[in-house]
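Input (Carboxylic ester hydrolase):
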Amino acid sequence: MSKLSKLWRRLRSRADTLRASGAGFALSLLFATSAALTPLQADAAGKLRVETKEGPVKGFLNNGVAEFLGIPYAAPPIGNLRWRPPQKHERWTNVLHATAYGPSCAQIYELGLFAGPANNNEDCLYINVFTPDVDPAGKEKLPVMFWSYGGAAVDGESNDYDGSKLARDGHTVVVTFNYRQNLFGFLAHPALDHEGHLFANYGILDNQFALKWVKRNIEKFGGDPNNVTVFGQSAGARNTGSEVLSPLAKGLFNRAIFESGAIPIETPLSIAEAKGTAFAVAAGCGSLSDAATAKCLRSLSAARVESFAGTTTSSNGAYLAGLITDGQILPLPAIDQYLSGNFNHVPIINGNAENEGNFFIVLTEYFESPRAPLTEAQFVAYVNSVYSGNAGPGGSPPAYPPGTVAAVLAQYPLSAYPSPQLQWGALETDANYSCISRHMDQILASQVPLYTYEFRDQTAPFYYPPMPGFASLAYHTSDIQYYWPLYHGGQGTPHPLNSKQEELSDQLVTAWTNFAWTGNPNGQGNKPWPRYKAPNGLFLAEDIKPAGLSTFTADQFSAEHHCDFWDKLLVYKSTTP
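Output:
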């Protein structure tokens, strides 16, 4: 074992002892280790050529981290490979200079400033590696952190995420990648589904194929192929959940982190195929389910396919299915699998941001001209449109019983909130994130090691421009920038963290990478982040307030987010007929 490896293990052991005694995440020791990496990186400068199974690549050093960007991990899914499982990329012999991100996958809806710009790229299956140790002769293999980005399964790209802090400060190998999304990534159609290959969830198959690339190649980058943590935010968390659920992903990873997306909400196959058939008719390929129809679909230009996935400012949703219960990749609705225990059992971190919903309602104001504060009338109209009994998760039959609109309006009176915007944001947060996540915690706690949290920094920088009367608080996506430096969406404005926020960022990176190392965010022991035990387990509060990292109970969380109310509306129940 190298001197550096011994130093790292000694410092981590000492940090673990301090954590076990309740002294927090022992960040000063972590910083000392980061400084000790410098000699290795100087020595590694000549070792940035790595021989992958597919061919040689050469990266570059950036602030003490070796980066390898834009490595193809699969053949381009174009032509006859469109709407098929990913295939191996042909070998190359010349050195691939991995110094720039590959093209983002085709997308048209930008989710405000979250993603984009819109493009029609189908040749987009590229992977990126950030590592503090590229010495192939090194005997220590580092934990791997495998990131799946969010974007509602319709947009997003890996090049928005700088993995250097997680790699450098946590001494881990960080992997990001692109995957097919919207109609290219999630489409069911009888003509395609009956061709004899895995179907529908092509974006999840891309996730799994990238994990297989990691299994084959990551050791050459200093990573341990037998210690892989999958993690993601929003739709990326749901992708991560899909790996936990999918029997096809068994053995490809060892731990999982769900950030703001605990339960994959899936569309039943019959509904997804109806959407796919409607898309084929609209695109001019007819309503049949034969080989000619499949050929017609694959002959459509990428731009034409994207034209049915929405616009840059809105996703019409008519043909989009998202995750699909296809019977093989995702065998059953998520809740059914979790309740039965039929999933890949690994240690899990699960959590949310305190004010998730503010991210979604900002889009309403952002696209108004002129922009004006949201009104109670807009809130009431929204409640009537969603909770009148006409909508259910994943396109399933109506989920809400008669009287739900009145009950929701009574539960969220304007008098209880400073503004209609925060009234609306609280509803979105509780119904679509917090209470679903708590329900998930109750199911998982007895089956796997589980750690839960709520991100509560209401001062988090906001990458949208200032808007009249809008308070962002701890909004959906706000926590990303605490792990991925200067994250600001695809087109937003970056804002550096202040000193207090940097301190919180350091604590969270330490916890996440401890989890990657040991399956325990404390490193070892049960402090400061206790393992969750149902029914009234403890959450970690992630905040910059004087109390710093603290805990609160599931009952307190439930009361804050009205979960007793939402539990009665059956919004999490199985969609199995």
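The chain has 19 helices and 18 strands.
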